[in-house]
Amino acid sequence: MSAARTLETARSPEVTPDLQRSKAVAEQKLNESARQAIQGNRLALKQFLEAITPEVRRICRTIMGRDHAEVEDAIQECVLDVARALPQFRFEADVSHYVTKIATRRAISLQQRSRARLQRHTTMDPNVAPVMTFDQGLAIRANLVRDLLHDLGEPQSTVLRLRLMLGHSIGEIASITGVSENTVKKRLRLGKDYLRRRLERSGEIPRAR
What we know:
This protein is mostly helical. The protein is built from nine helices and no strands. It has helices spanning 3-7, 17-38, 42-64, 71-85, 95-121, 134-152, 156-165, 170-177, 181-202. α3 (42-64) crosses α4 (71-85), α3 (42-64) crosses α5 (95-121) and α7 (156-165) packs across α9. The model is unreliable at 1-13 and 122-140 (pLDDT under 50).
């Protein structure tokens, strides 16, 4: 299994009319809770934050790694960021996209900060080879892709995270990032080309002939 495949989300279920309607109703309910929260309704704010927490948790665990030591703190920080930023939301798109944008940026920032701190303080004896289980091997492959995305930088790394790691569509990514769908496609192509080259060099995938 390649490192990129390790992080890819499972295929979405078939989008049926009933599923589309259900999603639309949920989005409307979340948008209404956000509107009431902005107007000062504390109960609505509490309900809104409770409703977004599962998605914020998924974003943080996907970007940082489920077993990351700081992931639970990151979830709380992301939720607080959303609460602070909510009054600036103008409802030009669904509020769920606004939440994803804020949580993704914060999770990336926290991951980068943690990575830099780890690089400063972690040392390893080069003569000691760690024993690795199969599950640990998969985790290391996933962490390899996270490191490569960190090295890639913006803006390609963000669209790759949203697409490969969080499973968003091209249209959703365009809404979240505030750019056209053509720009999203270009950034995805450039980012995937970079990721493929680096994975080929690492031996995770065979070189193209």
